[in-house]
Specification:
Radius of gyration: 42 Å
Shape: elongated
Distance between the termini: 60 Å
Order of helices and strands: HHHHHEHEEHEEHHEE
Number of helices: 9
CATH architecture of one domain: 2-Layer Sandwich
Number of strands: 7
CATH superfamily of one domain: Histidine kinase-like ATPase, C-terminal domain
Strand order of the largest sheet: 2-4-5-7-6
CATH class of one domain: Alpha Beta
Helix content: 55-70%
Length: 411
């Protein structure tokens, strides 16, 4: 079995190919120059006026000389001398070309090594970088050429990989913590019920009801995580949907909320639902609308209000807008709300406020549908969230990045 070439051998082969290329180009150019020079000199030396001027000049310069030789013999000697000069020129030029070819090969080897030196730095450094040292960068110096652009591109890639790895670690840690909480609570309830030496039917019923509540809490979390994973994976099938009908269903479900998770008194809901057809994944779009309405209800203030509207865009898309009153939110806090397991303020860290996945799921669903998401803080508190779905056109599959590394269009 043939062993693969080592990186050093591959680098040497590239250097050797460049050297051969440089030497070959110089040799071909030298031969072409020699041939052109030879043809020009041969053409010039073959002209009769040159010989005639030489003979006449010789006669005037030596008047005392003997009688001039025959015209034909003089011409033969001139031609023979011209031929010898041409041969000598060809020989000497060939030797010079050969010497310079050897010199060009050496210079080509040196130049190729200089050209490939940044590539060797890139290869060695990139090979040393692993998952535990993604904070390292190439940081190439030198002129702003193609090699430096390659190094900067790799540095940008490493930055995105580092952000993705950190986001995945944070996501796994937060998911483990959120999943462990209801399990620990259920186990504690069961242990407390079993520790009672004389349990009654009523006490056991209360324990079972609390365990069921903890189980439902865990089911909602798992369902949210699965929805987030599906949104990150992309849209596999798109159907013709009515965004207005999905929104009406979500509003009807919000009419009977969980009292423990809703401010008292309940916020007023005003809707302006117009016909809004679109293409998309029905389950993901239903989850998006439900999350936006649920967040508007959960994170409101007592006696607040919610405004929900749907409409069609002139290009054939659909728009959903959900605005709610609530606590004042700074613009720099918005990107954190779109990441998994992020909650705003101490008053939102309780279990009743959810798991911090609502807007993260919204962002994932928006991205996989090729839609646009705009989140705007309201001056008097609360948020205005606008989702604009594109018209019927191909949607790229699984193009989303880690929630911590995505560019988020936030107003």
């Amino acid at each position: 079995m043939t062993r693969p070439a080592s990186p050093t051998r591959r680098r040497q082969s590239v250097r050797l190919r460049l050297t051969v290329l440089y030497g070959t180009l110089f040799l071909v150019s030298g031969i072409a120059l020699l041939a052109i020079t030879y043809l020009l000199v041969a053409h010039e030396s073959g002209q009769a006026p040159f010989s005639e001027r030489t003979v006449r000049g010789g006669d005037h310069a030596s008047p005392a000389a003997g009688p001039p030789p025959a015209e034909g013999g003089l011409q033969q000697r001139v031609d023979a001398r011209s031929t010898d000069l041409l041969h000598e020129l060809l020989t000497q030029s060939g030797i010079a070309v050969a010497i310079m070819t050897v010199v060009s090969v050496g210079l080509g080897w040196f130049t190729a090594g200089r050209v490939l030196r940044p590539l060797r730095t890139i290869i060695v450094t990139t090979r040393d970088i692993s998952a535990g040292s993604l904070d390292r960068r190439l940081a190439l110096r030198g002129p702003d050429d193609e090699l430096k652009e390659l190094g900067d591109t790799i540095d940008d890639l490493l930055s995105r990989l580092e952000a993705a790895f950190n986001a995945q670690r944070s996501f796994a840690a937060n998911a483990s913590h959120e999943l462990r909480t209801p399990l620990t609570r259920a186990r504690t309830l069961v242990e407390v019920g079993l520790a009672d030496p004389q349990p009654t039917v009523e006490s056991l019923r209360r324990v079972c009801e609390r365990v069921l509540i903890a189980g439902r809490h865990q089911e909602r979390l798992i369902e949210a995580l699965l929805t987030l994973a599906r949104g990150e994976r992309g849209v596999e099938r798109r159907d013709r949907l009515r965004l207005d009908r999905i929104t009406r269903d979500a509003l009807r479900s919000a009419a009977a909320p969980d009292e423990e998770a809703t401010p008292t008194p309940r916020p007023r809901i005003r809707s302006r639902v117009e016909v809004a057809p679109m293409w998309g994944d029905v389950r993901l779009v239903e989850r998006l609308v439900a999350n936006l309405v649920d967040n508007a209800v959960r994170h409101n203030v007592p006696g607040g209000s919610i405004e929900v509207a749907t409409s069609s865009t002139p290009a054939g898309g659909a728009t959903l807008t959900v605005a709610n009153t609530g606590p004042i939110i700074r613009p720099d806090e918005i990107p954190g709300l779109l990441r998994p397991f992020r909650r705003l303020g101490r008053d939102r860290t309780a279990a009743r406020d959810g798991h911090g996945l609502g807007l993260a799921i919204v962002h994932a669903v928006v991205t996989c549908h090729g839609a646009e998401l705009a989140v705007t803080p309201r001056p008097d508190g609360g948020l205005t969230v606008t989702v604009t779905f594109p018209p019927d056109r191909p949607v790229p599959h699984a193009t989303t990045e880690s929630p911590a590394g995505r560019g988020i269009p936030v107003v």
